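tokens incoming
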């Protein structure tokens, strides 16, 4: 499959710059790329963070191939059709990003934002014979309820059939460990998907540190695990879930340091 950028169909992303749901999505997705680089989640110019375009059910947002995550702006994002055509913006969409993300967006409407990375600690767990998150702490229990495990690595994703397979494996989950590969999170917003990505890497890091001591892990009793999974993350503050407050705080940090992501 070849992704094409038709100049007759493409137009500058700056044409959509206004206080609309689409522009706010662009700003959040640009912020996520900048933050992922700052947090050590990125891998060169590869990996993919994408969003379905609000009000346009036939396309999603993806960065042009070759841009570093530290230089992404809201207006630099491409609109890519589910057939692989670049419908708006300048540049090319990386093939594996299309083949993984487009089918997930298309087949799972709740997956408004899809984030796939090879971030080091979570990817290290994905390379173990037993990659499962252990119930050894509160954060782990909170994340475990969302996690599914894909046990099959099929090689580089250069066919949309692979994304369709991943969508079936993911199902109603929000976090996926991809065997011998990396991880993937989905959410109803950029904020939710990034919050999951952030805490996934923290959980993986803490578990690996605990394993490296060589001591036996102290697992929580099943009733405590069940109660923690049921209740954690439940309260809202100011009418917003915790991930929205988390992402707002991270964007305020970006606004002080590199506000051009909003351009």
């Amino acid at each position: 499959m070849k992704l094409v950028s038709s100049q007759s169909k493409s137009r500058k992303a700056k044409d959509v710059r206004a206080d609309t749901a689409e522009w706010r999505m662009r700003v959040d997705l640009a912020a996520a790329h900048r933050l992922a680089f700052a947090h050590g989640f990125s891998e060169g110019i590869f990996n993919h963070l994408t969003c379905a375009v609000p009000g346009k059910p036939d396309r999603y947002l993806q960065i042009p191939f070759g841009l570093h995550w530290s230089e992404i702006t809201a207006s630099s994002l491409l609109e890519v059709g589910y057939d692989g055509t670049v419908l708006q913006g300048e540049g090319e969409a990386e093939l594996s990003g299309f083949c993984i993300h487009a089918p997930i967006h298309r087949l799972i409407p709740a997956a408004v934002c899809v984030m796939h990375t090879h971030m080091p600690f979570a990817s290290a767990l994905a390379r173990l014979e037993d990659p499962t998150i252990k119930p050894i702490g509160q954060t782990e229990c909170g994340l475990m309820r969302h996690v599914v495990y894909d046990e099959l690595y099929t090689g580089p994703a250069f066919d949309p059939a692979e994304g369709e397979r991943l969508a079936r494996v993911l199902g109603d989950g929000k976090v996926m460990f991809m065997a011998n590969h990396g991880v993937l999170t989905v959410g109803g917003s950029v904020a939710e998907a990034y919050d999951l990505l952030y805490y996934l890497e923290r959980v993986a890091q803490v578990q690996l540190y605990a394993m490296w001591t060589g001591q036996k892990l102290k697992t929580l009793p099943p009733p405590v695990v069940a109660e923690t999974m049921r209740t954690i993350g439940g309260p809202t503050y100011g009418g917003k879930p915790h991930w929205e407050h988390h992402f707002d705080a991270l964007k305020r940090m970006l606004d002080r340091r590199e506000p051009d992501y909003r351009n």
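note: Residues 125 and 131 are 5 Å apart (CA to CA).
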